[in-house]
Amino acid sequence: MKLVIDEKRCKGCNLCTMVCPYKIYKPGKKPNERGIVVPELDRPERCPNCRLQALYGRTLCGMCQMICPDQAISWVEEKPGEKKKVAIEF
Ligand code: SF4
Ligand code: SF4
After folding, report:
1. Using CA positions, which residue lies closest to atom 5 of ligand 1?
2. pTM here?
3. Where does residue 67 rank: exposed (0-12), middle (13-18), buried (19+ CB within 10 A)?
């Protein structure tokens, strides 16, 4: 699983950058074509949801997804052949 921000939904409020205990979200730098500055992901493979959700079959954190007012955050399966990245960080 990997973490993604849906740029079509995000309004750049940066709430996700404030709640993530792993500081995976960083304020973005450039506005997109809609003029929205979408946060950047800093090594999202560190998110415990990505690396442990499949193993335990349940959500382990999910703060960012809960707080996002636009339902822009989700976890998706990697495409066939795409490398699955996992990083253990405590
Ligand atoms: S689920 Fe938790 S650790 Fe993972 S990106 Fe969201 S707030 Fe950060
Ligand atoms: S909380 Fe949601 S809408 Fe706000 S910046 Fe993060 S992804 Fe975008």
Report:
1. 47
2. 0.89
3. middle
